[in-house]
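Review session, final week

We close the course with one last complete record, chosen because it touches almost every idea we covered. It is Aldo/keto reductase, a protein from Flavobacterium ginsenosidimutans with 316 residues. Go through it on your own first, then we will talk.
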Amino acid sequence: MNSQNQKNEINRRRFLQSSVKLAAAGIYLGMFGMPDLFGNVLTDKVAKGIPDVKLNNGLKMPILGFGTYGLSGDVCQKSVVEAIAAGYRLIDTAKVYGNEVEVGKAIKQSGIDRKQLFVTSKLWVDDAGYENAKKGFEETLTKLGLEYLDLYLIHRPRGDVKGSWKAMEELYKAGKIKAIGISNFSPEQLKDLLSYAEVKPAVNQIETHAYFQQSNDYNVLKQHNIQMEAWAPFAEGRNGLFTNEVLTQIAKKHGKTTAQVSLRWHYQRGIVSIPRSSQKAHIVENLNIFDFKLDDADMKAIEKLDLNKTQFPEWS
Ligand SMILES: NC(=O)c1ccc[n+]([C@@H]2O[C@H](COP(=O)([O-])OP(=O)(O)OC[C@H]3O[C@@H](n4cnc5c(N)ncnc54)[C@H](OP(=O)(O)O)[C@@H]3O)[C@@H](O)[C@H]2O)c1
């Protein structure tokens, strides 16, 4: 190599090194420079860089958590232990999942300070009504082996919702639950609840993913300062979500997976999501969404995937 070629080679290497530094700075900004898009303030970063949202009562809730529907027995316990070890702090369960005992065992096994966790459970429809809701809550707490819940939701708007809500308000005021909320409530059902509620729900957990974007609910919840939380953030992979062509192209562009693009999309809309997985590789993969950013074109392309209908008609 002659001396001119050597100089060119050195310059080329310097250029590559500074590009790597610039890319690293870009990733850093992507992690820490996210604006508040839903309406609640994205606050401190917690374990492994999962930001919090601030609920309407001031409680902080991680914007990304771990779902446990369909996980049972040892698989459930192992998956929750792995999730906590990987960095998840929000764990979502429900009485009807039949796994609160295993979730509780996993929490103990994880060795993590209870105060570091954000545990959600839900009141099932069989326990609707004032007296039953109080009993249902105590059962949940006993099964989980916990002293309090961070978030307790009415799982579905069935039966005596007014009685259930009154019981939950009392438990909230007594400090047994840090925040109370609802799940699967339409804007009309929410309006009804708000007509008598003394404590406004902090969260509404509803089906939300690229195929069912819930834009009306999104706006209504935002107006009321009620945090939207997505269940089935991947639509459980229904309708080919993991191999969707648009998501695949966006994933390729960012060197990510379609699962990560899906979760990043929820995050950039300010929506809490709770993906579930029983595979360690997926559990870790689903956490790694804070080092890239979807641009406007990506967000618009995903918006067009909306079919505006549930992918779980059997649950309606
Ligand atoms: N409030 C309600 O009425 C309600 C209703 C449904 C769900 N939920 C809550 O929301 C949570 C999430 O919903 P969900 O569990 O129904 O469905 P989901 O999170 O949309 O999808 C779970 C499925 O995705 C797969 N998966 C996860 N990560 C993946 C990855 N990186 N790549 C490829 N596949 C991946 C999982 O398989 P692997 O195990 O193989 O990874 C599993 O089959 C539930 O677990 C539950 O806590 C609430």
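Two points worth writing down before the exam:
The domain at 36-315 is CATH 3.20.20.100 (TIM Barrel).
The chain is about 45% helix and 15% strand.
Good luck, everyone.
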